[in-house]
């Protein structure tokens, strides 16, 4: 079906562009991975770009879903809402060198498209300015820019756009053609690409993203781009490529071979600390890219001393979602051992909303994926966790109703890789705790899954949270700042006092009976609330036990489970 073109840049255009770009990268992912020879020939550029954009697209969809679920608010999100979500989603989901640069490109566009002022940035002129700022900011984010890479392609796209007069479609088409021409020239700029007979993989991905921009505003699908001078020889060429040397990768460094580790993490820090961090990491390794702003950054670097790179982040602020990859051995995660040579028979992979629960699940033997407030994991992160579990059989616990489709996609991909995966549709971390409590690896897989599913299904779940905006609910209209008590996903209580709301929720849940109450406290929950709830259960409900856990920064003030 032909795409209905957008006439100017608004929230719907952002949504359309993200969807089309994600589809384009999905179709080109394997091809881009196959030509990934720079800066490290690790064959994952296409996958990293896809996962980064998947996170961006997911964030945009979440903004639209939030408006659709709430009261009428003038027709939907604004352009600023949509582009800020896109940039934030890309930032927190950025993977690898290429994904980190793509995140900065999207952030650079956002800074123009969402800028306040008398002149709207929704027309062709706005798009020209956005593409220029995107290219410039991405180049500034890279410690040692190298020509013949995605940076060259982005700059060429911006140059071509500046010479185009007309609407968004005209500007997008000019940017695409400029990028396409620059991509074809990359083998002449980087010897490693010329030896392999391929174009730059990151640049190839950006051309796909710009092709989606053209389709968004014109409804036309641009001419396909070939990844190699001789496509039939890509595999043979890739097999011949030697790892690029450190000197060739950075342009001004000496060394016989590249660093051993890729280190990526999100970082909460101020601008001054990040400036010092850049200097520190630049002395430790290469391929340094630091993107972001407003207190949240994505840090990417290739180093020989991964621990030193992480410690530098700790000195600068608060690093999390730390990811360390050994270029020769695959993924390694701080705080855990490398995967064993032999696969274990069975493992549990669970999404958890806070550091405290992550520790609890880990102690119980699960492999965890941390979902921070407003930062749901993408399907690629779940697939990576399944791989990291290194098991023949995996039980997947999404622990969130909103992650149902994401988890299903991850399960399908893992099955395609030969892993037996069972998805238990847990909708809360307390249901996951109940499932994990009856997990028995020695049982037959099907029996274990049935028992875990039964335990999760027998657990009612609730949460107490603070409303972020006015909304229609099952219990009436709530205002921003109201305390909400949700039972099995529906708002049942609206109040002003956290403890009172929690007591009401608990009473309603226990009216139907129960034997065990599980309470998970968030960092912002009142200090006395656990004692109040335990006392209420002990005095009002005979033979009902209570267990309390600390969940950390989990979004909700507290989670409640009743078995």
Low-pLDDT runs of 5+ residues are 226-256, 329-341
Major beta sheet summary: 6 strands, mixed
Tally of DSSP helical segments: 20
Radius of gyration: 25 Å
Strand line-up across the major sheet: 14-13-10-17-15-16
- Quote the average pLDDT: 82
Into which percent range does the helicity of residues fall? 40-55%
User: What share of the residues does DSSP label as strand, in percent?
Assistant: 15-25%
SSE-based structural type: alpha+beta
Number of strands: 17
Distance between the termini: 49 Å
Question: What's the overall geometry?
Answer: globular
What can you tell me about this protein's structure?
The protein is α+β, with helices and mostly antiparallel strands and 563 residues long. The chain has helices spanning 11-34, 45-69, 79-93, 96-113, 124-141, 150-162, 168-185, 191-196, 201-218, 234-240, 246-250, 271-284, 306-316, 355-363, 379-389, 404-416, 429-437, 445-457, 498-510, 529-540, and strands spanning 261-268, 285-293, 296-303, 318-326, 330-332, 344-352, 367-370, 391-397, 420-423, 460-466, 471-473, 476-478, 483-487, 490-495, 516-522, 545-552, 558-562. The strands form four sheets. It has a six-stranded mixed sheet with strand order 14-13-10-17-15-16, sandwiched between helices. It has a five-stranded antiparallel sheet with strand order 2-3-1-4-5, sandwiched between helices. Strands 7-6-8-9 form a four-stranded parallel sheet. α2 (45-69) packs antiparallel against α3, α5 packs antiparallel against α6 (150-162) and α12 (271-284) runs antiparallel to α13 (306-316). The chain is globular.
